[in-house]
């Protein structure tokens, strides 16, 4: 049976960005549609070939910090991806209920920490669009720590620099591998997101208690 969240026993809430607070549909479109189109145009190859090539490269890097790294892909693909993201920021938006949830956390006095695998430039651009950092007490990109959240060594490294009590912490994320790594690190409260893409299908959440959106948590 899933343990009900006991909010009086939670001091810190670690929140993922894309797929938890923000619609993952933007990232899916950007990396799977827009970047291949840009690559095809810049390098003079058919769009289908560009998409197949990029999907192969993405798959090879999945789970590593490079997979999330805007600078890595800019170099590898010889594209200015920060500029490309900046040009389409109007597509970035919150998932339903995210802003209200952040407001309730603020009123309750909980420590709100944005913890994302996204590159710092991507975080800055999305903050520019939505003012996301104004709704949290702290924000961190895992690029500052040299490992993604799904890596088991990330959590002790993160905790050494950003102290928190795992037994009194809630992590909300749409990535099952991240939840598994956090569980091994002793984070007591874990919740998965079932609908990281607005209007998209239900996301597999494995053994973890899940909600469609963060707004359902409180």
Quick structural gist:
With 218 residues, the protein is α/β, with parallel strands linked by helices. It has helices at 25-43, 47-61, 70-77, 81-86, 98-108, 120-130, 154-161, 176-184, and strands spanning 12-15, 111-116, 138-141, 169-173, 189-193, 210-211. It folds into two domains: 7-24 and 94-217, 3-Layer(aba) Sandwich (Rossmann fold), CATH 3.40.50; 26-90, no CATH class.
Please give a structural write-up.
This protein has a six-stranded parallel beta sheet, sandwiched between helices. The model has no long low-confidence stretch (mean pLDDT 96). By secondary structure, it is α/β, with parallel strands linked by helices. The radius of gyration is 17 Å and the shape is globular. The chain is built from eight helices and six strands, in the order βαααααβαβαβαββ. Strand 4 (169-173), helix 8 (176-184) and strand 5 (189-193) form a beta-alpha-beta unit. The chain has helices spanning 25-43, 47-61, 70-77, 81-86, 98-108, 120-130, 154-161, 176-184; strands spanning 12-15, 111-116, 138-141, 169-173, 189-193, 210-211. It folds into two domains: 7-24 and 94-217, Rossmann fold, CATH 3.40.50; 26-90, no CATH class. The longest helix has 19 residues, at 25-43. Helix 1 (25-43) crosses helix 2 (47-61).
């Amino acid at each position: 049976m899933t343990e009900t969240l006991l909010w009086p026993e939670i001091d810190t809430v670690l929140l993922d960005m894309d797929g938890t607070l923000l619609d993952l549909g933007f990232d899916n479109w950007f990396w799977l549609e827009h970047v291949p189109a840009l690559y095809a145009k810049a390098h003079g190859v058919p769009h289908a070939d560009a998409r197949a090539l990029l999907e192969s490269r993405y798959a090879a890097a999945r789970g590593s910090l490079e997979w999330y790294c805007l600078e890595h892909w800019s170099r590898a693909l010889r594209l200015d991806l920060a500029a490309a993201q900046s040009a389409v920021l109007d597509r970035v938006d919150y998932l339903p209920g995210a802003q209200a949830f952040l407001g309730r956390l603020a009123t309750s006095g909980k420590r709100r920490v944005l913890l994302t695998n996204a590159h710092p430039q991507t975080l800055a651009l999305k903050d520019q669009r939505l003012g996301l950092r104004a709704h949290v007490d702290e924000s961190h990109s895992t690029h500052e720590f040299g490992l993604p959240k799904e890596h088991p060594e990330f959590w002790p490294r993160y905790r050494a620099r950003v102290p928190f009590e795992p037994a009194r912490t809630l992590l909300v994320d749409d990535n099952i591998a991240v939840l598994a790594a956090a569980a091994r690190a002793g984070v007591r409260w874990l919740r998965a997101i079932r609908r990281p893409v607005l209007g998209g299908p239900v996301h597999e959440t494995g053994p973890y208690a899940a909600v469609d959106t963060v707004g359902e948590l409180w």
